[in-house]
Amino acid sequence: MISMRIIDSHVHFPTPDFFGKPEGRVHPWLAQERTRWRKAWQFDGAEPLQSKDELVERWYREAIKYDISVVFVTSGGNDAMSEIVKAHPDRFYGYAHHDPSLKEAPYLLEKAIKEQGLKGYKILGPAVNTPLDCKDLYPVWEVAQGENIPVLIHFGIMGSAGGIANHVNINPLIIHDVAKNFPDLKIIVPHFGCGYIFETLNLCWACPNVYIDTSGSNQWMRWMPYEVNLEILFRKYRETIGPGRILFGTDSSYFPRGYAKSYFDEQFKAMINVGYSDDEIDKVVFGNIDDLLKGR
Hints:
One of its GO terms (molecular function) is carboxy-lyase activity. InterPro entries: ACMSD, Amidohydro-rel, Metal_Hydrolase. One of its GO terms (biological process) is secondary metabolic process. The chain is α/β, with parallel strands linked by helices. The chain is built from eleven helices and eight strands. Helix 5 (105-114) runs parallel beside helix 6 (138-147) and helix 9 (230-241) crosses helix 10.
């Protein structure tokens, strides 16, 4: 592996709730799509989950092996996340990830940052039934802006084949007015916008406090109505917002896959082919998220 500073800004600590409930009969097309995805990336299926402590140590060994730091964006709750990151603060960062529509959400976020050592906030847009631009959620954004933490919000298709494709919070532009009304709130849109490229580019152009991350296999590129690949995405986002608001991530989670280095390799190759300089690559894979985690 090329020697460079790397913080993977988007990793899920494996938990039962992340993988969902056991499925009954699966439609043959869905099973075929999931099998195709694993084969394409040469990934084995997920192992039975170990204990949390065993997984913490296994992920720590992954971080040492690949000489990276990781940002866990979900872990099954804020209490669990606090324990995970405190086990290895030299390599682990963690985000709060409770529902922003809860009455106690602002309090939980403030507690997570001030008392539990967490560094950001993760929200799954299509899992929140309240529109994200609703004024009822403004107290949450006030806390996040006041504590100077990044807020990572998943938009677009959610889940593997058969997942959610229509929801009030699926389009990134739902957060436009929030970004305008809270100009110091750092908002991260993952997976290059997850199919909503035009909307995400417009959002980033209009709101300089919006960032994107590159995480995942980005298989949504396959069903776009026009040709899209990683080189196009890295070029178009750099042309629109520059290299200072692009964050590297993999969306890694389960074992035996562990750290999805193949995602890094594909993204690194795309940046090289597009013409990113060494300094620009350093910003994407390290500097930009390092600044956000440190409140800069």
